[in-house]
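Final report, section 2: Outcomes. Of the targets proposed, Hydroxylysine kinase is the one most frequently requested by collaborating groups, and we therefore present its record in full.
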Amino acid sequence: MSARADVTPVDVVHLAKEIYGLTVTDLKELPGFEDRNFLVSCEPSPPIHEDKQTVPDAQQKTSGQYVIKISGSRDKQDDSKLEKQRLIMNFLSCEHFICPKYVKTKSGSWFEWYDRGNGPMRVRMLTYVPGDTLMDHWEVLSARDTLTTLGEFVSKLHLVLERLTQSGDVQVDVDTLNPWRMDNFLCLKDFLDEIQDVKKRQTLSDILKRFQEEVLCKSDSLSSGIIHGDIHDMNIIIHVENGKIRPIHQPAKETDSDRVKNTFGIIDFGDVTFSKYVFEVSMVIRDAIVDVKSMDPIEIAGHFLGGYLKHRLLNCAELDVLFVCILVALCQYGVLGEHEYKLQPDNEYTKLGAEDAWKHLEVLQKMDKLHVIKTWSTLLSSTYDLVL
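The predicted structure is given below as tokens.
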């Protein structure tokens, strides 16, 4: 986990002018775990050098608004990783998903390194996907309907990313260092000594053991491919009117597939990696459990699966490990959120949901896995006419 860039709003205004030739008229910093993210309004708004490999931009009129992302990474090997992220975003845009697109600099590159004397910073500009984050609207939305549609959206995303993986057009590396990647969960052993609370430390120890004994042994049976890596309700963009989600983009002719894709925008592809699809399913459910206050956690997972399984099935091994993976994802939230907050005490974003994750873990880890799967099966059969 790299240190955040030391940059001020004045710096951002200067960078927009120097690197992109744009005059900033308004600026707002957006939340970010590691990157510094700034929403900027610019004028004049000349024809920008967006990636032309994507579909026409009728669904993403930026009106002179962009997001400038600044990272403090010193590892220039990350440059190839960014190029792969850009290619994946292009591919998804061509598949009619609503996501940002890279904007070229004045020199024609997709990003630039900038050093004002205290270390190099990588500067990127992306088109802005207008709307609100899903996290800001859970209280006014129908949780059940939203979870089901979100499940459909994630399953369609996985189907498309599976196809991209199989094509071999984009080769995404396996990230063996990032502790947020569930494949690397066992590295959280290194955080045991940091945890002062005895109950929390025992919880982490118990779930580490369950992951090793109940999940890793089935690893070969879990489908893998390119995943987004950070699908949560602060990276899902929606448009809400009168307490209901409305399409971000309304095409002249809409298929059922387009309906789901047009409901959500998806941003922040910085954690794209090669991993197990069931791991990402569990991480999306984890975030919903933390943020949806009006529904039981097991029911939350069931309604998400009601949408997901409509388009993409999970095999027997994936269904068997899903509950433990949800526990693992909650554990990551609690342990890594608290750890990162110690490193960035001025960044409240880092510890969002960490304490709630521990509270849910205390209850959920005592549940019998087979009972949970049976509960899901009953809900899916009675509500969605799906057989688990």
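The domain at 133-384 is CATH 3.90.1200.10 (Aminoglycoside 3'-phosphotransferase; Chain: A, domain 2).
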